[in-house]
Amino acid sequence: MIEVTQSILGDKGNCFAACLASIFEIPLEDAFDVNSPNVTENNWVRELNKWLRKYDLIYVIIHEPSLYKSRHRKQFGYHIIQGENHATVGYNGKIVFDPSPNSKRKMKIGSYGIFVKRFEAKK
Hints:
Layout: H1 15-24, H2 44-52, E1 57-62, H3 65-68, E2 78-83, E3 86-91, E4 94-97, E5 109-117
Antiparallel strand pairs: 1-5, 2-3, 2-5, 3-4
């Protein structure tokens, strides 16, 4: 993981893209951006999963943080922790990097986004 700081702040900030760039160790401009014109609140996970195909991964959201805090969380490695209007990089359930240049703020965790190996069902 490399630390990539977000370049846009505010409601249309690119913290999520900075988290992806950090985890996948790619330039910020190459990361999936939820604020892209073709991405909406209803299709962003589907669009993200299309982007993740090149890594043979899918993104799975755990909306109930207490479910994530089970004994299995150590298996997740790097992931994205989302709060209200912000995203950070997590590792095994703990925030390890905040891409915001104003990273001193506290964040109430809303969900965990984990990366799972993609597989095709046999026909």
